Amino acid sequence: MRLLALISVAAAALAAVAAAAPPATVTLASSAPSVLYGTQVKLTGELSTKKANQPISIMETVCGSTHQTKATTVKTVANGAYSASVTPTSGTSYQATFKSSKSPAVAVTVRPLLELKRVAAGSYTAKATAGQALTGKFVLFQRYRVLKKRWVQVKRIALGAAVPGATKPTMVSSVSFKAKLPRGTRVRVMITKVQAAPCYVTSASKSLRA
User: Fold this and answer.
1) Cα distance between residue 16 and residue 153, in whole Å
2) I need a labelling partner for 40 at 20 to 30 A (CA). Which of 2, 60, 100, 170 fits?
C-alpha cells in the first residue's frame, strides 16, 4: 500500500510538471525583406521542443486580402529547425503555426520586374512584370549623369495594355516610346513606390546604353 501511495504521489508530481510546462513556440525569419517578382525567398525557423518530424504550417496573407491561406507545410529536422521556399506574387505576410502556437508575422515586399529594350536608335520598349496588370502606372525613363553620379529623369511614361505571362497570375504591362540621347548614355526605367503601391514597391530595370 505504501509503495502504491508513493507511486501515485510521483505520478501526480510528474503530471503537475507536465501541466506546468510552457506550450511549444515557433519562430520565423525570411532570407530577404524584399524580392524581385518571380524570385523565391527562404523562410526558416525553429520549434522550441527541438523535436524532429513535427509539422509546421506556413500561412500567408497576400496584399489585398485579410484572409490567411496555407502556403505550404514542412517538417522539422533533428534540432527542431525547418525551412521552406516560397515565391510571393505580391507583398505577402507569412506566419508559421504549430498546433495552437503561432510565430510573429514576417512581411516580404515584392518589386515588379522591369525590363528596358532598345529596339532602334532613339526607340525603346519598357515592360513591367508582376502578379497583376500595372496598366496606367507611370514609369520613369532615366539617364545616368556621370558628373553628378546619380540617375535623373528624362521622361515619364504610362504603361499600356497588359498580357498574361507564362504562369498565373503573371501579367506583363508594356509601352513603346522614343527618346533622343547621346549615344552610349546609360539609361534605365524605374517605378516609384507611389506608382507601384499598394501591392508592390520601388523597382528599377538593368541599365543599357542608348
Assistant:
1) 69
2) 100
